[in-house]
Specification:
alpha+beta; 5-stranded mixed β-sheet; 1 helix; 24% helix
Length: 74
């Protein structure tokens, strides 16, 4: 079964002089059924996207789904 991850970027924070990026990731099926959500942290937006993709893939595989894509929320 196919599923999708949607990443929504949240406000950044600065900790010890470094910017920390935050995002919320929602998991759902192709029909829109919600499968879960989680937050992710990173020091760059690309690192954030990479971590979100890896975590979403692990979560969905555990639930018996195949991750089709990581979409960015509008």
């Amino acid at each position: 079964m196919n599923a999708y991850a949607t990443i929504e970027f949240l406000s950044n924070t600065t900790n010890n002089g470094r910017t920390v990026y935050r995002a919320l990731v929602d998991l759902s099926t192709a029909t829109g059924q919600w499968l879960g959500s989680f937050s992710v942290l990173g020091f760059t937006t690309q690192q954030l996207k990479d971590r979100a993709y890896m975590e979403a893939d692990l979560n969905l595989t555990h639930k018996g789904y195949t991750l089709q894509s990581l979409r960015v929320a509008a």
